[in-house]
Amino acid sequence: MEDSMNISDAENQYIDISEPQEIQYWSEKLNVPEEVLKNAVRAAGTSVEDFMEHLENNG
C-alpha cells in the first residue's frame, strides 16, 4: 500500500512538480507546504533523498 510508505522507503522516488496532483501528494506525504516543496525541488532536484537532504541543510 503506497500510503504506508516511509520517507526512507521513498529514497528511490522522484517528485514531479509539473503535475498538481503530484505536488499535493508529496506535500502531504512529506508534510511541507506546496511552495516549500516546489522551491526545494527546484534547488535540490527531483529525488526525494536529495529533497530531504536539502531541507535538513537549509531548514
Explain what the structure shows.
By secondary structure, the protein is mainly alpha-helical. It has one domain. The mean pLDDT is 84. This is DUF3606 domain-containing protein. It comes from Flavobacterium artemisiae. InterPro entries: DUF3606.
Can you tag this structure with a few keywords?
59 residues; mainly alpha; globular; DUF3606 domain-containing protein; DUF3606
Provide the fold topology.
Layout: H1 20-30, H2 34-44, H3 48-58
- Major sheet details: none
Number of strands: 0
| Tally of individual domains | 1
Radius of gyration, Cα only, in angstroms?
A: 10 Å
Average of the residue pLDDT scores:
84
Estimate the global geometry from the Cα principal axes. Answer: globular
Beta-strand percent range? under 5%
Label the structural class: mainly alpha
The H-and-E topology, N to C, reads as HHH
Number of helices: 3
Low-confidence stretches: none
Kindly report the oligomeric state of this protein. single chain
Distance between the termini: 30 Å
Residue share in helices?
55-70%
Pfam family, one: DUF3606
Protein name: DUF3606 domain-containing protein
InterPro entries: DUF3606 (IPR022037)
